[in-house]
Write a structure and sequence with these properties.
With 303 residues, the chain is α/β, with parallel strands linked by helices. 40% of the residues lie in helices and 23% in strands. It is built from ten helices and twelve strands. The strands form four sheets. A five-stranded mixed β-sheet has the order 4-3-5-12-6, with helices on both faces. Strands 10-7-11 form a three-stranded antiparallel β-sheet, with helices on one face. The chain has a two-stranded antiparallel sheet with strand order 1-2. Helix 5 links the parallel strand 3 and strand 4. The protein is elongated, with a radius of gyration of 24 Å.
Length: 303
């Protein structure tokens, strides 16, 4: 039998996530001494030093502390699941689910999944965060989100993943661009044209690596981290872009027409996946989203 308590685990996880005893105490509505005592008792029960407490410098985890943190989150999640579903024997899914999504995938993949999930499991409190690729990896690894939707590009080894589909990069041009009437375009043809670079991690690396592998240097005219700004500049004829995700409409925010052309040769697809910590068992609410994503994208396509 374990000699530690769920309260001790809760206090330890709060300290690890906030970085200090006082911040953890505030989050849990406990006194500093109560949180400190709970962590000390947990260390005694496990016979391991989990934290290094430095006055005025917060708390850092030892290697043992990082190991325990990964498992403590799973134990607390399972405990919450048991409390939520015991009364009705699991007849209705309850709890909370926080999703993360790489920003350019949020309007399509995220929106589709949360719409279907909310209809199927209305008692689950569902919310989401969007942001950059590395940010989503960090959020998933740290437990800030239960699951995250990201590209496979640069996926850390500590994350498990469910591949959803592969998206193929295409050239995006204004309707009156001299190359817009072609059936396909080569990177060599595009290299001499001004480029509008979507300058966010993963998109930037993927685009530039395509040209580098072909022995080419793109003529970057503008950089922007905003997907719709990229399309608006393209629509005004200020350059072309290489984009992976394509909206259903063929016009920019301003209503200007945009043309999407395949590249020749066809680049390797960029995988899109649902990810979560490899060593943490997903909650029932998270597992239901994994099952829904597998059902939705089981054919490997985005439609």
């Amino acid at each position: 039998m374990a000699h530690y308590t769920l309260r001790q685990l809760e206090c330890f996880v709060a300290v690890a996530e906030t970085g200090s005893l006082s911040a953890a105490a505030k989050a849990l509505h406990l006194s500093d001494s109560a949180v400190s005592g709970a962590v000390t008792e947990l260390e005694r029960s496990l016979d391991a030093r989990l934290t290094i407490r430095r006055k005025a410098h917060g708390v850092v985890l030892t290697p043992s502390g990082r190991y325990v943190l990964e498992h403590a989150r799973g134990i607390l999640r399972s405990s919450r699941d048991l409390s939520l579903h015991a009364a009705d024997a699991g007849a209705e899914l309850r709890g909370t689910l926080m999703l993360g999504s790489y920003v350019t995938l949020a309007p399509t993949v995220l929106a589709r999944l949360i719409d279907a999930y909310a209809a199927r499991h209305p008692a689950v409190e569902l919310d989401f965060l969007d942001g950059g690729q590395m940010q989503m990896h960090d959020y998933a690894a740290s437990g800030r989100v239960d699951l995250a939707i990201t590209y496979d590009f640069g996926l850390p080894s500590g994350l498990a993943s469910l591949p959803l589909y592969g998206a193929t990069p295409c050239a995006v041009l204004s309707a009156d661009h001299p190359l817009a009437r072609r059936e396909s375009l080569t990177l060599t043809e595009l290299a001499a044209e001004p480029m509008i670079l979507l300058d966010v991690h993963t998109s930037r690396e993927n685009t530039l690596s395509m040209f580098s592998e072909a022995g080419l240097d793109p003529a970057i005219r503008f950089r922007t981290s905003n997907y719709e700004v990229t399309r608006s500049l393209v629509a005004r004829g200020m350059g072309y872009a290489i984009l992976v995700q394509q909206p259903a409409g063929s016009r920019s925010y301003e209503g200007r027409e945009i043309v999407v052309l395949p590249l020749d040769p066809v680049p390797r697809p960029v995988g899109v996946s649902l990810v979560w910590p490899r060593d943490t068992k997903p909650s029932q609410a998270a597992q239901a989203m994994i099952d829904l994503a597998r059902e939705t994208y089981g054919d490997g396509g985005a439609n």
